[in-house]
Protein: Uracil phosphoribosyltransferase
Organism: Caproicibacterium amylolyticum
Amino acid sequence: MENCENVFVMDHPLIQHKLTYLRDKETGSKDFRQLVSEIAMLECYEATRDLPLKEVETQTPVAVAKTKVIAGRKLAFVPILRAGLGMVDGVLSMVPAAKVGHIGLYRDPKTLAPVEYYSKLPSDIEEREVIVLDPMLATGGSGIDAVTIIKRSHPKCIKFMCIIAAPEGIKAFTAAHPDVKLYCASVDDHLNEHGYIVPGLGDAGDRIFGTL
Ligand code: PRP
Ligand code: URA
């Protein structure tokens, strides 16, 4: 994993291999969904690496063992609708006890500005670490607004997990939320004139839900 201050690029071979097939325009919705879920699962493994542990004693069939469990910090995943939904199954397979909130945002196709249409967060979010999920960080507008909305509920800590990020989005996001760690599988080249990431993978929401 390459680090640059608060930006973590997860270059694990399994993630990079799956990302290649995710980008391929010939990959259909069924395989695309599966790949998004698998990449999210692998990213979650890295993004939770800093969770604190505490020692406990466990009675095995043979003896008492000193072992470790995650110490108290509870997790909530918050996908940004729609495309973030594709990452939920994968992260829940790693942390089944996590709660799931939702933030509904879409990009206005003309201005590219995010428009909020839904928000529902776990009632005990103040006790939780939140990992926001969205496969794409393009201009950064949706991710920035989602984190701003979540911060109003005062979670213990917020991380942002995407699959592909544009340099423009990383710059805007880290300037707006310097306290939030950003995890991605690739930093791509640039945004085109329509705000799409180049080379990217096209419209993630449309490819997940087959609405192209
Ligand atoms: C996509 C994507 C992000 C956003 C990224 O969502 O899933 O939420 O665009 O772009 P930004 O960084 O410039 O804000 P979209 O608006 O297409 O909605 P959808 O998930 O419902 O398809
Ligand atoms: N949203 C997407 O789904 N893809 C992009 O390339 C940019 C924003």
